[in-house]
Design a protein that fits this description.
The structure holds two protein chains of two kinds.
Chain A: H1 20-34, H2 36-44, H3 49-52, H4 66-104, H5 113-125, H6 129-141, H7 148-171, H8 176-184, H9 189-218, H10 221-226, H11 234-239, H12 249-269, H13 271-278
Chain B: H1 20-31, H2 35-56, E1 58-59, E2 69-70, H3 74-80, H4 83-114, H5 121-133, H6 136-147, H7 154-159, H8 165-168, H9 170-195, H10 199-207, H11 212-240, H12 244-249, H13 261-270, H14 275-304
Antiparallel strand pairs in B: 1-2
The chains are: A mainly alpha, B mainly alpha.
Chain lengths: 284, 311
Amino acid sequence: MTTAVSEVSGVSGRKRRYGAGSLTVVTWIVAILFVFPLLWMILTAFKQESDAYTDPPKLFFSPTFDQISGVLKGGFLPYLANSAFVTVVSTLLVLLLGIPAAYALSLAPVKKTKNALSFFLSTKMLPIVAAIIPLYVISQNTNLLDTVWALIILYTSMNLPLAIWMMRSFFLEVPGEMIEAAHIDGANLPTLLRKIIMPVVAPGVAATALICVIFSWTEFFYAVNLTAARAGTVPVFLVGFITSEGLYWAQLSAAALLASLPVMIVGWFAQNHLVRGLSMGAVK
Amino acid sequence: MSTISVPAGTAPATTHPASTKKATNKAGKRRLPLLPALIFVIAVTQIPFLLTIYYSFQSWNLVRPGSFHFVGFQNYADVFTDSTFLGALLNTVVLTVVCVFLSLLLGLGLAILLDRKFVGRGFVRTLLITPFLILPAAGALLWKTTMFDPTYGLLHFVFGTDVDWLSQFPLAAVMAQIIWQWTPFMMLLTLAGLQSQPKDVLEAASVDGAGRWRTFVSITLPHLSRFLQLATLLGAIYIVNSFDAIFLMTQGGPGTASTNLPFYIYQRAFEGFDIGQSSAMGVVVVIITMIVATFALRLMFRAFSVDGGTK
């Protein structure tokens, strides 16, 4: 497992305080204990079923790729393709709708910005179950049931409020003088966005996109209720394992690992973006 | 910039002395970039909700064709006399409060451990954020099987008990999974807060002879409070809607011991086909959420001083 970290790890140049060594050991132990379920899942994904289901649990075994290839051959790929398509398209839509909105709420603030912002955030507070029945009925009547488009529309509206909040905070970091100068030169909005604002806010927009990707990829409720065999996403594929009452732990672990891997890798490589996005640009 | 507060005066001064007609045009033009997002969100979130309100006044059970008729507030009366609903409401409150609080506390603890230079720090951070990156559905199934299984689970192996966690402590088991899932999220936010502390203030404190605890309470915590508020708000928004863990681990059972509102509404709609009843529950949940959210939003605006950017 390789990791990408931008910071230099290691002992600081300062004189180490007494106890720093033991604190490091404690940190490592705590971290390993915390993620142990996950490490166990990765181990189990490479076991034979007979090794996965034992008492006491087996730590040492001869690893096999049977489970991974079994999942890949077992109809997993269409679900993966659906997930990828839905995630990419809805994230692009969020940016397309969200960037101009964030601009209007930050650099050229419309009246009642506060109202617009609270409205966006308040939609996040609507419990999604409260709308699922009409959504189901509407999807059925518009033939969107069990299509990727239903999910794309819903994921876009699900992520847009948070994305606008995040991007607005990044936009506010653009120096006002730059925009004024561009205004004086008579630049129109698209030019202003492309030439002046985007270069400054690009890292923030990337951070926002990353968070939209994570939330879309992992979304479960809409996916389970509005899709089935045709447009099912990766979480829907996993639901198929409930019926098999835990007798296929190795296969389940392999499926869970494969289902999570794309977002895991993206998240590892973009950790700092993740932190920036979540903290609404408060941290450089 | 190390604070969240928006610097005042970033808004460009675009008020030119102009005719009123020109001014209204300008205002309209300014609103233009906002409209697509606004219209989209209103259409996708408000229309279904209005339909939910409409359904909630109807008696409509999909299994009984022709049952669709107006019943006034009957569905609402039924909701408030439904003991399962009240139980689910209580479970939702307990689950949200406990999970947000504990994952925040754990996240803060982990963030403090990570807020120093040590060997392998980057790797440890990578490890710790991973539970937030895996599918909640995968996490839930994983805990249900490899952790909680009474015969072959890791908890059975570690504690040597034959406790069937999911049937004896269903809500606690579900909460454990949700806390595990959300702790990294809280950790990332609080770590961001810790690392944005002004170093000179910390140094001044140690020069003045303030101990670690004193420094933490007097300097770090006040600085963190915004980050903690943001983490609480975002965490609560998602955890209130918890569905994956309950659906996959316990199906709300045994009985209704681990049923929360999202799961109960789902059950009434998709298993009981009682559209009127579940819609009324949905509306009640929205009203409760709105009351709570009003307070939360007020906090949020205080924390982010939204007025700062707009004059």
